[in-house]
Amino acid sequence: MTGKHEWRKEDKALYLPKTKPELITIPVQKFFQISGTGNPNASPAFAENIGILYALSYAIRMMPKQCYTPEGFEPYTVYPLEGVWGLADPALGSEDKDNFSYTLMIRQPEFVTEEIVLRATETVRKKKPQLAVDKAVFGTMEDGLSVQMMHLGPYDYESASFAQMTQFLRENNLERTSLLHREIYISDARRCEPIKQKTVLRWTVRRIQK
Asked: Which residues form a coiled coil (predicted)?
């Protein structure tokens, strides 16, 4: 084994951008994912889904302590929670948070395979039978060319950061490829004052052909 992989250090460009928009290319990544709809502040299912994702992620992280070391494993820090957000009914707009749709996810290291996922799922099912672990799916995503920035402060104030990103698109001959947006939660909202929260905001984009 080599030294511990710390995403804050090794993947700084992906997770700790500046507080102004920048262009970046995001590679293929592996994730545990759970999709749903509704107000994240009022839905018990939303909190449960987060619990499932973390339980699976830590089950893989702790495998060597359970007398099983996957091929290619090296010590690492569990990646942060992410969410891809949209609207269940675009016609209703975003004022009503019950209209939100989301896919929550936590990235997994490259060594993770379907076999390892099955082992982790069985571990969580035995240790935490109250969790609906089968809601989670394992797969890959590739954002590719993207614009991202670090948003500081409450989630409800993200519109100011999105305005900066919109201006960046105009100035750099870019356009969004989707109305969805990704959020990466660098701060734990349960332990951090809203004013101090750090959230990466990301749009997938393409260059406008003239």
From this structure: none
The DSSP line for 22-50 is EEEEEEEEEEEEEEEES-TTT-HHHHHHH
Instruction: Give the span between the Cα atoms of 189 and 138, in whole angstroms.
Output: 25
On whether the CB atoms of residues 53 and 32 are closer than 8 A, the answer is yes
Q: What is the pLDDT of residue 1?
A: 44
What class, spelled out in words, does domain 7-207 have in CATH? alpha beta
* Residue 163 CB neighbours (<10 A): 10
The C-alpha angle 101, 200, 108, rounded to 5 degrees, equals 75
Q: Is residue 81 helix, strand or coil?
A: strand
What is the distance between the alpha carbons of residues 49 and 57, in angstroms, rounded to a whole number? 12
* 3-class DSSP string for 2-16: CCCECHHHHCHHHHC
**Domain-wise residue ranges, the chain:** 7-207
Going by C-beta distance under 8 Å and a sequence separation of 6 or more, which residues neighbour residue 116? Answer: 60, 63, 70
Radius of gyration from C-alpha coordinates of the chain: 18
Eight-state DSSP code of residue 5: B
For residue 103, report the phi and psi dihedrals to the nearest 5 degrees: -130, 110
Q: State whether residue 161 is helix, strand or coil.
A: helix
DSSP E strand boundaries for the chain: 22-37, 81-87, 100-108, 137-152, 174-176, 181-185, 198-207
Q: 10-residue block means of pLDDT along the chain (210 residues)?
A: 82 96 98 94 92 98 95 96 92 82 97 97 96 97 97 94 98 97 91 89 94
